[in-house]
Amino acid sequence: MEFGTFYQLPCAAEQSPLQRYEDTLMQIQHADSLGLDVAWLGELHFFPTFSIMPSPLLVASALAQRTHRIRLGIAVNLLPLHHPLRNAEDAATLDILSNGRLEYGVGRGSIPLHFAGYNVALEESRERFLEALDVVLLAWTTDSFSYEGKYYQYRDVQVVPKPLQKPHPPIRIACNSSDSFQLAGERGWRILSSSVIVPVPRLQQDITTYNILLSEHGTPRSSDEVAIMAPIYVASSMARAREHPEASIMHYFRTLRDMYKKHHWQVAGTTFYQLHLLFDKHHEEQDELVDTIAERIQLLGGVSIAMAADVAETTIIPRPPRGREEVAVQISRLLDAHEFILKEAHTMAKEADEAGDDGTNDLLISDLIRLNELQVWFLAEHLVAVPLIHPEQAKSAASGG
């Protein structure tokens, strides 16, 4: 097993971007000296309290000159938002400057604010991602190539330089949905996932499916197919490990909520808009709900670790942390609640659509008023990652189809 660090680089209004970047570079230099294996850098846009790191390849290039051994991971390049040839060139240059230490993480992205800012349709993300990755691999592994896709077309283009690592740097795919785990298993890609984004029970199931598909497709196995990001805080006691990071963790989830709320209209059409109205109407209840859910995520995701000796035990996904037998009960109850509330919300949205009504009044007077709808809003966008209606359905409803 290897260990590393992940940097997202949020910046509060009273903080200096210059100092935040310098602190991050110094921390990764220190991680290099301590013998950690990899430093992962996120790519996020347009929301400084969540991140001021839109260009992780540039940050990694600076680190290439300050570090000597630690691998430099991008978690992840949001390929639908980039020109794939330029991304291939920049990443290959980084691999050379770092003497072959690049870990090339890629993903579709899912934050509506990013797609709205770049004026890219969110529903195009999967197709754009797959095409862009094909282009990057061709750029790295062929002297010259032509490509004819839906979004990208090239003729006899020669991309230089080539990466130092052969045939190319390790590629790792961000997997947060079950479909992504299945795609990665079928194609033999390494994966990167997060216990904060993916509920732990589903993470167990998806990784099992991924391993089965790797075997079925004859993919040669190594010891590093799966990388998991999990918040960890080490303290002298469980109580201190929960108390000290609490304010920071709660701030993270509130900021995540606020970022998803912005440009909400691009996610799932009319039904999401209705829930957004309820968010504004009952914001105090939502704040309280976020506190509760974030606390559950801490329990389910293994956020707090009391003693250094516990680290090895709690990194095994199927096993709950020592001394926390109630975790299985928490998982069962929380999953039951998720399924019931989401099923009711889907039913209500369908009935409102069939009645030709926008559904707002139906939601407000239904049995799922106040906290229930708000819980659906938060869970659907942050934990379950299932939109209440698909984009195609939203378009049909908007056009009266």
* Percent helix: 40-55%
Low-pLDDT ranges: 264-283, 285-338, 357-395
**What is the global morphology?**
globular
* Major sheet: arrangement of strands: 1-2-3-4-7-8-9
Structure classification: alpha/beta
Biggest sheet character:
7 strands, parallel
List the helices and strands in order: EHEHEHEHHEEEHEHEEHHHHEHHHHH
Can you walk me through this structure?
This protein has 401 residues and is of the alpha/beta class. The chain folds into two domains: 4-174, Luciferase-like domain (TIM Barrel); 234-399, no CATH class. Helix content is 53%, strand content 12%. The protein is built from 16 helices and eleven strands. The chain has helices spanning 17-34, 56-66, 84-97, 112-118, 125-141, 178-187, 200-216, 238-243, 246-261, 265-281, 283-301, 311-314, 327-354, 360-365, 371-382, 391-399, and strands at 4-7, 38-41, 71-78, 102-107, 145-148, 153-157, 171-174, 190-194, 226-229, 233-234, 304-305. The strands form three sheets. The chain has a seven-stranded parallel sheet, with helices on one face. Strands 5-6 form a two-stranded antiparallel ribbon. A two-stranded parallel ribbon has the order 10-11. Strand 7 (171-174), helix 6 and strand 8 (190-194) form a beta-alpha-beta unit. Helix 13 (327-354) crosses helix 15.
